[in-house]
């Protein structure tokens, strides 16, 4: 597998190092001359100097035969355009882009640059997971497939507390796929499994149904 | 016609002024408030008094584009100093807001050509400059 990594900052350099350690063929592209010279001491021929948004630089790096292009510069415009030309001009099968400002994620989506990885969003999700503010955590979002998986805690006095899975009034397009009792291993519930306060449940649902789910599981039937 | 110009540098401000003089509605978006001075320079009245609009904001921020009136724009001109910003914001105007005519300043000849093939109306001053230099060299050589 041949990988081109554009952007030799902390993310790009460490990525290139790890890939090389895993015996992948890698070329790192860095446009800042001093950073390039420093990296070149370590990576030698595996780093090239140039602006990775320019076509001739990508071609010199061998983009025609690249299996994967990873754009991790500190500039979202650059990352979007590098991946766009990799995919649409050079027909590279796999791309991965770094999104520095989560507000730009919509632009990555608009131009089909997926997956786009936002460290800020990843950390925010982790914070949500560790500190569930409203008892609901998005575990998986698949917008194209119109599918989400959420984790929700069953509050004291919730409408669903004490009911069996079959009796909980969930809207069409949603399904409880797992129950995680406090301190015990999770399992796939049966229709007669009773849901207790403090349990966490995983629900697969169509996007937009969250309010109906939280209505069933929030403490005392609150809806935030 | 409503013309939205993103980037009030030498190119953007000149095109904005001539579009306004030609009777179009013109709105200009630039992240630098001081760039407004270019729009006033050499004019008898201020840009606003002449009927122009000016919004301070970053090109690829949706809120800034909305404030500058992108939803009413018939013609969109991307003329910031950055090729990558121009190419991205032009595609946002075209694909997200469905602006009819999108014109993009691209300095890099190779990408100007490729994005033109993809349906963007690109203008590459570097390419024009190279052609003029080549012409001048040919003429100078012939006159010897």
Features:
heterodimer; A: 224 residues; alpha/beta; Rossmann fold; Alpha-Beta Plaits; 2 domains; four-stranded antiparallel sheet; 10 strands; B: 144 residues; six-stranded parallel sheet; 6 helices
Description:
Chain A has 224 residues and is α/β, with parallel strands linked by helices. Chain A has 2 domains: 2-119, Rossmann fold; 128-221, Regulator of K+ conductance, C-terminal domain (Alpha-Beta Plaits). Chain A is 30% helix and 23% strand. Chain A contains 7 helices and 10 strands. Chain A has helices at 10-21, 33-43, 55-60, 76-88, 105-110, 119-130, 210-217, and strands spanning 2-6, 25-30, 47-49, 68-71, 94-98, 116-117, 136-142, 147-153, 174-180, 200-205. In chain A, the strands form 2 sheets. A 6-stranded parallel sheet of chain A has the order 3-2-1-4-5-6, with helices on both faces. In chain A, strands 7-8-10-9 form a 4-stranded antiparallel sheet. Chain A is elongated, with a radius of gyration of 23 Å. The model of chain A has no long low-confidence stretch (mean pLDDT 91). With 144 residues, chain B is α/β, with parallel strands linked by helices. Chain B has one domain (2-142): NAD(P)-binding Rossmann-like Domain (Rossmann fold, 3-Layer(aba) Sandwich). In chain B, strands 3-2-1-4-5-6 form a 6-stranded parallel sheet, sandwiched between helices. Chain B is globular and about 55 Å long. The model of chain B has no long low-confidence stretch (mean pLDDT 96). The chains are: A alpha/beta (224), B alpha/beta (144). Chain A binds chain B through residues 53-56, 75-78, 80-81, 85, 88-89, 103-104, 106-107, 110-111, and chain B through 60-62, 82-85, 87-88, 91-92, 95-96, 108, 110-111, 114, 118.
């Amino acid at each position: 597998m041949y990988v081109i990594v554009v952007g030799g900052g902390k993310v790009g350099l460490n990525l290139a190092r790890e890939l090389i350690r895993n015996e992948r063929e890698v070329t790192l592209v860095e446009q800042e001359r001093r950073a390039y010279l420093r990296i070149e001491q370590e990576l030698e021929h595996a780093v090239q100097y140039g602006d990775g948004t320019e076509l001739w630089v990508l071609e010199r790096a061998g983009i025609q035969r690249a299996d994967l292009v990873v754009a991790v510069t500190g500039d979202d415009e650059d990352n979007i355009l590098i991946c766009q030309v990799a995919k649409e001009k050079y027909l590279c099968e796999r791309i991965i882009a770094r999104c520095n400002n989560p507000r730009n994620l919509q632009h990555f989506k608009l131009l089909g640059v997926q997956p786009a990885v936002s460290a800020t969003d990843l950390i925010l999700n982790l914070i949500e997971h560790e500190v569930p503010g409203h008892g609901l955590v998005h575990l998986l979002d698949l917008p194209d497939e119109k599918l989400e998986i959420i984790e929700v805690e069953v509050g004291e006095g919730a409408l669903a507390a004490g009911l069996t899975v079959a009796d909980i009034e969930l809207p069409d397009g949603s399904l409880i796929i797992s129950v995680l009792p406090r301190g015990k291993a999770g399992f796939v519930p049966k229709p007669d499994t009773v849901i207790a306060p403090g349990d966490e449940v995983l629900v697969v649902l169509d996007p937009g149904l969250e309010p109906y789910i939280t209505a069933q599981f929030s403490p005392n039937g609150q809806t935030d | 016609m409503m013309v939205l110009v993103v980037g009030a540098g030498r190119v953007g401000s000149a095109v904005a002024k001539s579009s306004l003089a030609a009777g179009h509605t013109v709105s200009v978006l630039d992240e630098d408030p001081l760039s407004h001075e270019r729009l006033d320079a050499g004019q008898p009245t201020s840009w606003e008094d002449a009927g122009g609009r000016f919004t301070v904001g970053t090109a690829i921020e949706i809120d800034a584009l909305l404030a500058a009136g992108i939803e009413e724009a018939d013609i969109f001109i991307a003329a910031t100093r950055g090729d990558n910003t121009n190419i991205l914001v032009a595609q946002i105007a075209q694909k997200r807001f469905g602006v009819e005519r999108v014109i993009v300043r691209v300095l890099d000849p190779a990408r100007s050509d490729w994005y033109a093939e993809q349906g963007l109306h690109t203008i590459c001053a570097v390419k024009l400059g190279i052609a003029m230099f080549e012409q001048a060299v040919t003429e100078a050589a012939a006159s010897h």
